[in-house]
Amino acid sequence: MGSIKVGVVGLNFGLEHVMALQANPRFEIVAICDIDQAKLDALRGDVNTTSGDAVWYQAERAERLARVRSRADRLRQTRLITSYHDFLAMPEVEAVILAVPVHLNAAFAERAVAAGKHVLAAKPFALTLEDGERLLAAVKASDRAFVLGFQFRYSPLFRRVRDVVDSGVLGDIRQLFWNMTRMPLRAAHNRRDLSGGPYLAECCHWFDLFDLMQPDSGVRFSRVAAFGGLDVPNTHVDFADNAVTIVEYESGVRASLNFTYFTNQPEYNVFGIQATDGKLRGDTEGAGHFVMWAGRTQDRFDFAADPTKAWQGHLGFDRNQDVFADAIESGDHEWAVREAERGLENLRICLAAERALDSGQVVHRDDVADLTVAS
Ligand SMILES: NC(=O)c1ccc[n+]([C@@H]2O[C@H](COP(=O)([O-])OP(=O)(O)OC[C@H]3O[C@@H](n4cnc5c(N)ncnc54)[C@H](O)[C@@H]3O)[C@@H](O)[C@H]2O)c1
Question: Are residues 197 and 239 in the same domain?
């Protein structure tokens, strides 16, 4: 098979996709779409765009743009286009990578799948169950590849964690935890109507990894409780800046997720597995580490991933494009459907956690049917 003709939509986080694709010989970038013409112009010219974002983000974005421009040879034949409708009408676009605002994720993915394109969709899967179920139906009805942007699961760190889970060396896995401490989200994500709140905007990644850390992938949750609040005054945020969340799965595994959005400290993600014959504790610093003890002799095993593979904290990001290429080349449609089903289950957990946090009540699986994100 020749290189896959791909198009990218959205040029903030999407610039990282462009960078990764420029370095990946399996893809040829045939089109880039953004509603903002200035962002498209900036790919080729030397205009510097400012987005009205925080200074740190503008600096990060300018660095990405400079790296994309330094490989301009890979964009010479690329069509730059403002209309998503016209982009989807391009027959030469075989595969689409989406990096649009969160509230457009599901609708844009559904349109791309319906137009016969392979899709690498951004997380979260959707903001409402209705949108999520429509997207799952669209994936089922097509024969195209579908991959979600939960890149952490493809990182060397979490590949190795998965190997540990598969080996059975820890015994019966009973408890999982994830503790995140970080600065507030960017303005584009820190209001519910834009991103759906903390679970959908970001913590969906950690729920995805709770799925990865259990022997059976695709496991369903049974109930969720959460306590939290907006404790540090910040007029730019309209949802909780910290919470303690507990999820119980149908597998019997229990998981706790603690997040704060008011402190930016090292080891901002610390996670673990507690099982009948051992335990594992890790963090995502650099490209990630973990330490594990197992067995009657409590043998210690240490793992550290190569720090040059950190991909600016988005561990596994470069692998996500290869997983997309693998999915396209394999033509394994059952895999695509399972991926969309996992996306929908992830959405359900996020919505249940949001409801639990708002109401102070335990939210059961059956309560999720009527859930939508409050605005
Ligand atoms: N996997 C990850 O770790 C990760 C990290 C960051 C963001 N994301 C996801 O990537 C997506 C984009 O995030 P972001 O931070 O770049 O969002 P953003 O809102 O900052 O940027 C969205 C981009 O899409 C463009 N856009 C808006 N409407 C459009 C339209 N109708 N047609 C074409 N382009 C349009 C905007 O001009 C902008 O360039 C989100 O869904 C987010 O969840 C994933």
Answer: yes
Is residue 125 domain-shared with residue 270, that is, in the same domain? no
Is residue 139 one of the residues assigned to a domain?
yes
Q: What is the pLDDT of residue 371?
A: 56
In eight-state DSSP terms, residue 189 is: T
For the question of whether the overall pTM of this predicted structure is more than 0.85, the answer is: yes
CB 297 within 8 A of CB 315: no
Q: Which of 80, 100, 102, 203 to mutate to test ligand 1, by most ligand atoms within 8 A of the CB atom?
A: 100
* CA-proximal residue: ligand 1, atom 31 (nearest): 35
Q: Which atom of ligand 1 is nearest to the CA of 149?
A: 1
Predicted pLDDT of residue 370: 59
Residues 56 and 174 in one domain: no
Q: How close is the Cα of 294 to the center of ligand 1, in Å?
A: 42
β-bridge pairing 27-33 and 79-81: parallel
Share of the chain above pLDDT 70, in %: 97
How far away, in angstroms, is 106 Cα from ligand 1 center?
12
Instruction: Tell me the CATH number at 72.
Output: 3.40.50.720
Q: Are residue 181 and residue 62 in the same domain, yes or no?
A: no
Q: Are residues 72 and 173 in the same domain?
A: no
- Report CA(113)–ligand 1 centroid distance (Å): 18
Q: Examine the domain organization and report whether 309 and 217 are in the same domain.
A: yes
Sole residue written with tokens 């009527």: 370
Between the CA of 122 and the centroid of ligand 1 the distance, in Å, is 8
**What residue numbers bound the domain in which 24 lies?**
4-150+318-333
Is the confidence at residue 373, as pLDDT, over 50? no
Quick one: pLDDT at residue 1?
60
Q: Are residues 115 and 157 in the same domain?
A: no
Three-state SS for 375?
Answer: coil
CATH assignment at residue 255: 3.30.360.10
Q: How many domains does the chain have?
A: 2
Q: List ligand 1's pocket residues with C-beta within 6 A.
A: 9-13, 33-36, 39, 84, 99-102, 105, 122-123, 149, 151, 188, 314
